[in-house]
Specification:
The chain is α+β, with helices and mostly antiparallel strands. A hairpin with a 2-residue loop joins strand 5 and strand 6. The radius of gyration is 16 Å and the shape is globular.
Amino acid sequence: MSIVYIHYGSNYYDPERFKIIKNDFLSVKPQGGMWCSPENARYGWKEWCEYQDYHTEKLEHSFRFTLASHANILQINNKGDLTRLPKLNFPVVNGKDFLALTKPWIFLDFEKLLTEGIDAIQVNMSNDTATRFDEKLCNVLGCWDCDSVLIMNKDVVLSLKS
């Protein structure tokens, strides 16, 4: 059975609005793609928004979808899952090492992951069993706050009828 995902903020999927993934050197998240959560996530986007009282008006609009059976979904459940993934390299500017200033954040190279055939990245915050804060996904991935999926390839999205 296919996993059903939900995207908030729009009532339908429009592939024309999908923007190509681009690394953002000022953020742990890329520009582009499409964000969603598994519909049955323990702590998905809807729950996070309600808990934080963040843009709850946008929760009124959503659409559900699945991914093509051939979609290559990278599952991240803990900090250890990040060790083998490509990272961004930052230059030292004026004697300052940007990565040293942003520790413990990990900056993934999303463009490289896409060229390696990764269609989506699913971060399962609810599965993270780390007990030390410096080892927790919510700390090392910065602004990835809930069980979420970043769709990087628009061609794997299969719309569901409402």
